[in-house]
Amino acid sequence: MVTVRRPQRADARRNFDALLAAARSSFAENGTDASLEEIARRAGVGIGTLYRNFPTRRDLFEAVYVEEVNQLAEVAAAVAALPPWEALTAWLDRFVSYAVTKRAIIEALNRESEMFATCRRTMYDAGEPLLERAQKEGVVRSDLSFDDLLRMVSGLTSGAYVDDAQRSRVVSFALDGLRVR
Amino acid sequence: MVTVRRPQRADARRNFDALLAAARSSFAENGTDASLEEIARRAGVGIGTLYRNFPTRRDLFEAVYVEEVNQLAEVAAAVAALPPWEALTAWLDRFVSYAVTKRAIIEALNRESEMFATCRRTMYDAGEPLLERAQKEGVVRSDLSFDDLLRMVSGLTSGAYVDDAQRSRVVSFALDGLRVR
DNA sequence: TGCAAAACGGAGGCCCCCCTCCACTAATCT
DNA sequence: AGATTAGTGGAGGGGGGCCTCCGTTTTGCA
User: Domain HTH tetR-type spans what residues (chains A, B) (predicted)?
Assistant: First the structure.
């Protein structure tokens, strides 16, 4: 579990959280080049406050990214009790909710950074056992790597669809290609 | 086949084509909010010339988009002689080459525009018969629409992959979910 | 070859964003 | 309650993109 340092004082913590939430939604809407001033405005906070908490745009990316990765790890623990295929797809479902933001941020982030490596590890530790279990029980084809799977799902869900029904139909067809039948 | 009006004079035509090429690559690299001045610079042309040919950003989108759709239609004719599954995947291969640019533009374009409808029709006329043939011959599941297929492939290929091998592995797994086995 | 019309291209006004700096505010501690 | 100090927020300079306008250049035609 990776950590992000939050400020000490109550008002500062409030602003910190507001900024993080504003950044997440703003990045999701406008991509990684969303205006920082707009994010500060959304958070109801001065631009100076944003810069004190996150000196660079990159720091904001990292903070948002870390939060989402941590949530993914929690979900993985929660679904572990389900049967292998269901556990895997339930986790992917949750993965999808964050895929749009994540994808943009990951692309903007330098893949070589230590922080990125740590988060990647956290996410893999959370999700990879789900895939391995499904493969061991012969439910999923064995020549599929966890990395393949994540990229597939994240690509599939980052596009625009007519409605949610189409999105889930398309995703389930694609996942069907991974099953052993 | 949709058409884009090109200027009459030779120098103007040269500039028009240079702008179109610059726009395509710039949109592919930087998304739909690429700088117009950068595009003009890339094309070796004044900003005024860009605006004379394409009064709005949208006009540029449309011109780039139309060109790519026309190319897709040509490819569809070229692959018609192959067996059903091969014809379909060959066409999709080509579809992939343009998917990145296309996806960004499509999202920026107003879906209600007449131009969009015409292009959509052109593309459907080109590709849909390939899918229908594969379905009639029992090679592809019948509850898949052409729209489903395009969105799936365009999503799958818009993401970042480690290398081309991973991309094609992932795409082929997903397509495998569409086959009748 | 000479000329009219078409096309060029970039300066300039406007706006928004980035980021720094510092006078002010309020949370916490005693 | 008062002192201390972490925290605030926005003004402002610099930069770059958007778009218009118009003096200059190029082309095609006679």
Answer: 13-72
pLDDT at B176: 92
State, as a whole number of angstroms, the distance between the CA of A46 and the C1' of C24.
Answer: 13
Q: Which helix (H) or strand (E) holds B118?
A: helix B114-136
In chain B, which residues have their Cβ closer than 8 Å to the Cβ of A159? 103, 151, 154-155, 158
Instruction: Evaluate if the CB of B14 falls below 7 Å from strand D.
Output: no
* pLDDT of B2 above 80: no
Which residues have CB under 8 Å from A112's CB, separation 6+?
none
Structure tokens at A116: 């990125």
pLDDT tens digits for A134-177?
Answer: 999 999 999 999 999 999 998 888 777 889 899 989 999 999 99
Note the pLDDT tens digit of each residue in A94-110: 888 777 677 778 777 76
Cβ neighbours of A44 (radius 10 Å): 12
Q: Which of A107, A169, A177 is facing B175, going by the closest CB pair?
A: A177
B chain contacts of residue A160, beta-carbon cutoff 8 Å: 103, 106-107, 151
Say how far apart CA A20 and CA A64 lie, in whole Å: 6
pLDDT at A2 over 60: no
